[in-house]
Amino acid sequence: MSGIIDYTIVVPAYKEAGNLRPLVTRIFAALSRIDSPVPAYLVEVIIVDDNSRDGSEQVVQSLQQEGYNVRIIIRTTERGLSSAVVRGFQEAQGDNMLCMDADLQHPPEYVPQMLATLSPTKQFVLGTRYGGGAGSDEGWPLYRRVISNGARMLALPLTSASDPMSGFFGIRKESFLKARNLNPHGFKIALDLLVKAHIQSTAIAEVPFTFGLRSIGESKLTGKVMMRYLEHLAELYWFSYHAPIAFVLLLLTVIILFAWHYFTRTVEAPVEIPISKGRGGH
Known about the structure:
The chain has 9 helices and 7 strands. It is an alpha/beta fold and 282 residues long. The protein has a 7-stranded mixed β-sheet with strand order 3-2-1-4-6-5-7. Strand 1 (7-13), helix 1 (17-31) and strand 2 form a beta-alpha-beta unit. Helix 1 packs parallel to helix 2 (56-65), helix 5 (142-155) runs antiparallel to helix 9 (243-268) and helix 8 packs antiparallel against helix 9. 38% of the residues are buried. One of its GO terms (cellular component) is endoplasmic reticulum membrane. One of its GO terms (biological process) is dolichol-linked oligosaccharide biosynthetic process.
């Protein structure tokens, strides 16, 4: 594809071949609407794939042949969501960059508004599940809601953003280039960028959205992922505050985590039904 590109959408992916076609076609359908504030011809989509070997490359090639401005980067020596996003931003042609998941939980219909919100005065745009009529996470089971809200609460000392956990966010390239010591193994790259690019609260715009449903593939939320998030928080606390303050915050975090861990185990525990030993029992 040729021409001027002002906007880049980066999609980190691993074994998401079944979602790539609906994702890309819905993005460009939203951008092609007559009321879209961003024209489709100014936008590119970059899929950063961690060597899935599931047909993702063939899907992208087919979309290219149909005229969609999409390309794929296959990484064979690196793994991880955060480093994939950073790689996509480094390769971006546009000065306005958006990150979204491949699993369709970030509805492509919000893309035009998210992209249009970025400006010299709004350096960061965040899709938020909280406030402004957003659907929050009401469809999730209780333990997922507890985890989500606990993660948000632990990030409060680091940013005024209402939902740095959503993963649906955009940043201007000028701010991205100011960020230093990004954590390629961090659990949430949006939070890392908010802190390390020194994004002021006045430079953050928020767009309420409702999570879509994953149609193909499996959720990647695991206990290991949550532990990586906690390690990432510890690193960000140390980055943002002087040592004594960081120590106090980390101590409070540990206390909260113990309570959080106990509660999530409690709500996930199956209810035991006693077996009757009456007539017919063994």
